[in-house]
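User: Hello! My lab partner asked me to get a predicted holo structure for this protein. The small molecule is zinc ion, SMILES included with the sequence. Please write out the structure tokens.
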Amino acid sequence: MTISNAEWEIMRVIWTKEETTSSDIIEVLSHKTDWTASTVKTLLKRLVDKGYLVVKKNGRQFLYSPAFSEEESINKQVDDLFGKFCQRKHATILEHLLSETLMTASDVKQLQALLLSKETLEQVPCDCIPGQCRCQEHVEETR
Ligand SMILES: [Zn+2]
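Assistant: Hello! Below are the structure tokens for the protein in complex with zinc ion.
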């Protein structure tokens, strides 16, 4: 199930607080958006319907907590995004991300270790339908 940019803003607050009320979310997001209380409540309802949030009643308040971890959800978002691109382009996209990403020495070390143990293929298979990338038209790649 995909999640909109607006819903993502809500999820970030809930992952940070772990369990929270709509008024807390409205307060946090007032620093970033001009959403009304009813906008936030609509988004919360949608997230509950999509199964991203668990809601429980505590007196007169509703408490919202995440149904999935932030890490799990980030990975899913990134997998969905990469799924939009030809598999053969993924390494180039990662090169771009690596050069743009701020890293510590220990981040670099971890990535180096990962790369050294990475299994490689003779050629990455194209997973596109004909006509949506150039791989299957035997057009020379520029790299
Ligand atoms: Zn392709």
